[in-house]
Specification:
The structure holds two protein chains of two kinds. Chain A is α/β, with parallel strands linked by helices. Chain A has helices spanning about 10-15, 45-60, 60-65, 80-90, 105-110, 120-125; strands spanning about 1-5, 35-40, 65-70, 95-100, 115-120, 160-165, 170-175, 180, 190-195, 200-205, 205-210, 220-225, 230, 235-240, 250-255, 260-265. Chain A is elongated. The chains are: A alpha/beta, B alpha/beta.
Chain lengths: ~270, ~270
């Protein structure tokens, strides 16, 4: 099992997204759905069919109508018989919906067979890994960071997640690949996480973890600091260690030479 | 269509059942056809507070299981013909409440009543979730102390994510009812103030019920305190019911009125 961005988050994080009062018929939302990837190293129809049959036999109910992503990061041959591949998958009640990490030529073929195209896993992470990941001391409950990958840096439009309602005790909100903006307070016992920066325009009483995938440039901003725990790229401080001069004040938290800095916002 | 209001708190012993009894009575006294349902299966209390425990024959779970009709299970209040009570089962547990069963009963009640008050059990598990799932509005009962406030915050999060309205992308209207409030102890710093609680929970204040001997004695005698309008708690519940119906009323009972040496002197002089 692997999710489509290589992270797993609690299902509650999705549910606590904003609820707009009027309801249009469609909504575009950033969403993480757990997805099974079928990683292919080679493709020989008979062998593939047998191996898939063996896997399905182990857990038939799990595979029933299961959508899968075909992982082609390790597939090095120049061509692939997608038609046959999809056919065999279908025969075993598995639905191939997209390919991941395919070479440019294979992407074209896959597209012609109605499959979606996903970027390579490492490229996706590299987009936010602009620095060498720090994270010497991993913060509790942070999504697992991938190993450092020095791939070329791409600029990608980052999607911020904006939440209009208070984050209550026991709730968890995660903004994948972007910033998290909360236009309310975050209660004690709540947890907010982002791959990018975190902004809280109310009182921050819960736990805030920015740059959870290792982005050391991520920062936390809040209107009033009363956090239980703050963390940037795995470096964290609990409420006892937060300088008392910033408690109850507008404040930003950033990482400087592996040390978390707290700065009152006085403009 | 009836309005479904859940009375909930997360924490136990904060006054959910007492408030359910007084608020449902208050709505009925103002002419609204009201039914109050005890969701606390296995720890049935509402019938005691409403003084109808000797008239319980069939209960909520019997109706869900089709062992009795609603008419057989509903108990008419002695004091007010607009008010009915649907008692919980004492011999079953919370798992007897199925979502489909609860929905069926609520739909049937909806046709006959203006207000359905759901008295939630404590906790955040199945019983409490069944009580809040179908709610249009929620009254969150909170005591002015940190653990109660924390649990109320938790239940507000569950209302936001696990209720039917939340699943449909709508929101449940939330009201804060602060009970057992003692302005003298707030002044001494022994209790959280109204403002403290409002700031943490960030929801609209429905009312503040002062800590009062009359609440306990009326519970014990089975007459909801709202019937006794000579008591401060009775008046406070009446104010809350009016606010629930949309009236704007200034908050009372949040400051210590009989305070200070001079005030007592003046009062003494005035009565002398």
């Amino acid at each position: 099992m692997s999710s489509d961005t290589g992270t797993t988050i609690a299902p509650e994080a999705h549910k606590s997204a904003e609820n707009p009062p009027v309801q249009p018929s469609i909504k575009l939302k950033a969403s993480l759905a757990p997805m099974t990837a079928l990683e292919l190293t080679s493709f020989e129809p008979k062998q593939f069919s047998e191996e898939l049959a063996a896997k399905v036999a182990q857990a038939p109910s799990f595979f029933e109508n299961l959508p899968v992503v075909i992982g082609l990061e390790k597939y090095e041959e120049p061509s692939l018989d997608f038609e046959r591949l999809i056919e065999i998958c279908q025969a075993h009640q598995v639905k191939a919906i997209a390919v991941r990490g395919a070479s440019a030529s294979l992407q074209d073929v896959a597209r012609n067979h109605g499959l979606g195209i996903l970027a390579k896993q490492k490229e996706r992470n590299a987009a936010i890994d602009t620095d060498t990941p720090a994270a010497s001391e991993p913060a509790p409950q942070e999504p697992k960071a991938d190993e450092p990958a020095k791939v070329e840096i791409k600029t990608e439009t980052q999607i911020s997640k904006i939440v209009h309602h208070p984050i209550r005790s026991g709730q968890q909100v995660y903004a994948a690949d972007g910033d998290l903006i909360i236009l309310a307070s975050v209660s004690a016992g709540a947890e907010i996480l982002a791959d990018g920066n975190i902004h809280v325009y109310g009182t921050l009483r819960g736990r805030a973890l920015a740059g959870v995938k290792g982005n050391t440039k991520a920062r936390i901003f809040c209107q009033s600091m009363a956090a239980e725990l703050v963390s940037v790229a795995g470096q964290y401080k609990i409420s006892e260690d937060i300088p008392s001069s910033t408690i109850g004040k507008p404040c930003q938290v950033y990482l400087d030479e592996q040390t978390l800095n707290f700065q009152k916002l006085e403009l | 269509m009836a309005k479904i209001i859940v009375i909930t708190s997360g924490k136990g012993g904060v006054g959910k059942t007492t408030s359910s009894a007084s608020i449902s009575t208050g709505l009925a006294l103002k002419g609204h056809k009201t039914v109050v349902i005890d969701f606390d299966v296995g720890l049935r209390n509402l019938d005691l507070i409403m003084n109808c425990e000797r008239r319980v024959v069939y209960d909520f779970v019997n109706v869900i299981n089709g062992e009795a009709t609603l008419n057989q299970a509903l108990i008419k209040d002695k004091h007010n013909e607009n008010l009915y009570i649907l008692p919980a089962s004492q011999t079953r547990d919370k798992d007897a409440l199925t979502q489909d069963g609860v929905e069926k009963v609520l739909n049937e009640l909806s046709e006959r009543f203006d207000f359905i008050i759901c008295d939630s059990p404590a906790g955040i598990e199945h019983g409490a979730q069944m009580a809040l799932y179908f709610a249009d509005e929620a009254i969150v009962v909170t005591n002015p102390e940190v653990s109660s406030v924390r649990d109320s915050d938790r239940i507000l999060g569950i209302l936001q994510s696990k209720s039917r309205r939340a699943e449909n992308g709508e929101s449940v209207k939330e009201h804060l009812l602060l009970t057992r409030y003692n302005p003298i102890r707030v002044e001494k710093g022994e209790m959280l103030s109204v403002d403290d609680v409002k700031e943490i929970l960030a929801i609209k204040l429905l009312g503040v019920i002062p800590e009062s001997q009359s609440v306990l004695s009326s519970s014990n005698s089975g007459v909801p305190v709202i019937h006794d309008q000579s008591t401060d708690a009775g008046q406070a519940y009446d104010d809350a019911v009016e606010r629930l119906l949309g009236a704007e009323k200034p908050q009372r009972f949040i400051t210590n009125e009989k305070k200070g040496f001079f005030k007592r002197m003046f009062k003494g002089a005035a009565t002398a």
